[in-house]
Structure formats: structure tokens, C-alpha cells
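Data card: per-record layout.
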Amino acid sequence: MLGAFLAVAYALPFAVGIYTESVFFDLQWLADFTTVLLNGFMQGGVYAMFGAGLTLIFGVMRIINVAHGETVMLGAYMTWSAFFGLGVDPLLALFLTLPLAFVWGWFVQKVLLNAVVGGPELTPLLMTFGLGLVMIHVVEAIFTTDFRTIPYLPDALRLSENISVGRNRLISFVMATVISCGVYIFLKKHRIGKAIRATAQNADVAMVCGINIFHIYMITSGLAAALAVAGGALVSIQFGFNPETGIFYTLQAFAIIVLGGRGNFIGAMIGGVMLAVMESMISFMVPNGTAMVELAAYGLMIFVLLIRPRGLLGEKTD
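The structure for this 318-residue chain is written out next.
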């Protein structure tokens, strides 16, 4: 049933494009379509990375962090400040911003969220919602509401006569893949990573085995914040941003973890690529599609919840 839904979902932009006569199937259109798919796939790598941060928090602590998109936005402003204020390359700025993001996530978990882990789900949701509003207003007070951009490698890399990809998107995809794979290997091989996975499976048993689960919670929040800030840095070299763009990234992150399966790291990777490709197809084939890309996130999230609530790779629950 889910496979049939996904086939219909990806066929729908084609149907709309054929109906509105924006799909031609000639060589130039196919070349443009290939370009759009490649760029969407690369953007999906960035989506997957910051979506994995949200799925880490939910998988380990069962907390719905609605301030995750604001952390992505914060990463964009930190990168902008490093680039224009200190003259640091946006990619090199990651060596400065990621440690700061880890400390921020650690601090938020220790001060705000540790007290509500394991309690009613509505409490951390409201707490992170309030935190997100505070972050938005603080950034507005410092940087105003104007859109900002980082001019970083805006030219395209030509793969053939008619097919090209943005250099900044290619670099963002490579960096996002390296960071995501690094976190995945850390979770699989490192002692702390194994403790994180054990805590996600059963916090009570992990505590009995000698794992300080509150310490693990703070490390997990630090990792999630670092992934979000890295996502903000890679998004900032491609698109404009302002303090309210975090709301859009929160929506995307929720759609990603619903698609891939809540708490599943690999599922978040797959969900991020699926969402970005869908957005690219809609913006290319549907009239005024750029203004309708949010519909892709809402639509996929709602229908996957109806058909397969646990997502693509989510585990069954009683």
C-alpha cells in the first residue's frame, strides 16, 4: 500500500504537468528534468542530515523538539556572521560553529529538558515551542527581519551540454554526506554511540547496566544541535534566510522523520532525499510550483501517517 502511494505521489506532478502542458518529453525538457532531479537529490542530503538530528532526539528521549528548525536557522546566521564578520570560509566556519552548537544543545538539555524527559509529551513540546519563539525574537532583535544570503560559489558545474548542477549544492551534498556518515559510524562503533542506541532501545535497562542516561541525553541533544547547525550552514550558501525560515525547516524535519520512521537514523536519510526530490518535481512541473513546495511536505506527512504511521523503516509498536 505504501509503495502504491509513493508511486502515485511521484506520478502526480507528471499528471499535473501534462494537464497544464508544461511537460513536453523532448530532449531539452528531459535534460532540464535531469538537472532538477540531480539538484533535488543533492538538496536531499542536507535535508536528511538535519532531519537525522530531530530523529535522534525523538528516538532517544521521545521528545518532540519543535525548535529544531530554529536551530537550523541559528546555524545559518552563525555562518553568515563568521563569513562577513570574521572573513571565514562558510565550510571552515563549521569547525567553529559545530562545537558551539554542541554546547548549546547540551545546555538546553541540561537546563530545560532533563526535568521533563519521561513525563507527559505535551510538556517538552510546549517548552521547545517557547524556546523556538525566543530564538526567533532574539535573532530578529540582533539581525532584523531582512533576508540575508551568502554568495558562495553561485556558478554551475556543467556535466554535459544541457545538464548542470550548482557547485554550492554539490559541495553541500558532499559535506552533508560526510557528516551524516560520520555520525552513523559514531553511533555504530563508538562506546558512547552504543550507549546512545542502548538508551534509545530501553532507558531503564540501560540505566541498570550502568549507563548514565541523563549524560547520554545531553550528548544526544548536543549531536542533534550540531547536525541542525551544520544543516543551517549548508542551506545558507544556497538560499536566502531570515529569522522565520526556521519554521519551514521544522516542518521539513517532521516530514522527514514521519517518512523514514520516527527514531530511525537511516530512515531519516531516505526520507530527506524523498522529500527534496518531490519538492524539486513539484517546483519544475506544476505551474507556480515553487510556491507549492510546502504542500509536498504536508501531503507526504499526512498520507504516510494514514497509510503507515510508523514510516518506511519505523519499528512496530503495540
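Known properties of this structure: Residues 258 and 309 are 8 Å apart (CA to CA). The chain has one domain: 2-151+165-307.

See the next section for split statistics.
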